[in-house]
Amino acid sequence: MATTPDHNVVSYHPAFGMRRRVPLGVASFTSPVLGWRAESIADDQIEPPAEMGGNGTETPSGDASDERGPPEPRTWLHEFEQPGVYDLLCSPHETFGMAMRVVVGDQTETEFETGDPDALPEPRAGPVGLARLVLTDPSLRPEQIVEEGTVAWESLTVNQAGETTPEGTQTPEG
Ligand SMILES: [Cu+2]
Fold this sequence. Notes:
little secondary structure, binds copper (II) ion, 3-stranded antiparallel sheet, 3 helices, about 10% strand
């Protein structure tokens, strides 16, 4: 049976590219990876997947276990100083529903809480928005970067389209 011991605790905070689901004035916070063990990650999760042109479970050079690092603690303490409602997620397992809500004190008023899933804004699926366009831009093919040394923002293909930027995106101005 596969186990997934590697978790973290991350606040839904704009600093992480998320919509705020913690009280206003609360800074972003995150735990380190929790429960990391050398054997907890399979080789095929470290190597590029075969369907993307990687070798799958093959290790072309070096030992993939080098990337696993030392064991990590399974617990993490965080002090909530400001009363309010905090929504937290586990990055690796958010899509599996690993999220929780902490209410600090008796302050239960929030701007974000709703009982209607359809009322929530679109979930993230990274890379999103412009990052999705940038990282799939033909100008940023790795061999292109090696050849050019540096690929300027202006020379991205997405920026060559002139007025016709892809729907729903904005190009930075100035
Ligand atoms: Cu998790």
